[in-house]
Design a protein that fits this description.
Length: 243
Amino acid sequence: MATLRKMVSDVRATHKLLSSDGLVTNRAIASEIKNNTQLLIKRETNLRKLWATDTLFTTIPCLEMIEVPISDCCGYTDPCQVARSKYPLPRMSEGNYQYLIQGVYSINAMGGQGRRFKEVTINRYLNLLKLPIIKKEQYYWIANGGYLYVNNPLLKSIRISAFFEEDIPNQILYPVNSCGCGEYTTEQLCQNPLDREYGCPGYLQTQVLDLTSKKLLGTYFNIKSDHTSDGIDGQAPNAKPTN
């Protein structure tokens, strides 16, 4: 799978103006690549595509959890305790109906994937608490500014796979804690986000690069995508052709 740095390089290689102009920074190109990737992926996932792929979603293998009262995420007063992620998660993409979360799982004794949690809203879970008999299901929800909650207060860590719009801090992606999952290399702990595998399916990469190139040319050089009517051979519309 391509890295974000490789995709930035590919965008620069598509046009001499982008490759030579210092005003178009790598950060600006990377930001536009992310915007176009999110646009196309939301379109695909809304059509129920890509949910089974392993190239789109990023897995946080060991998200540290702490025990909190349920009032931490709502105005509901109850002696019930739940578990909450120690840190708020980076912003996740949202589709027509839900966050783009492939799955949330407990972690078994060997550090592997355990039982899968069911997604629920906090209001739905509060309604379940009012029932005389609550099924022994595992639930999760996102609330309170991006924190992840699960209804089992005893869990010390969980595993989540989701499509994130923001870079995941190393303290979340590679936590060093006592659960036995923190065996990471120095290269992983110090890795630049540009050098991580980028979550964009191969069949969408050409579209992402094309949209990015056109947007940057139009923004920085006033070159419209239809060069045949608004410009000559990739030059700005008001530029004179060279002999």
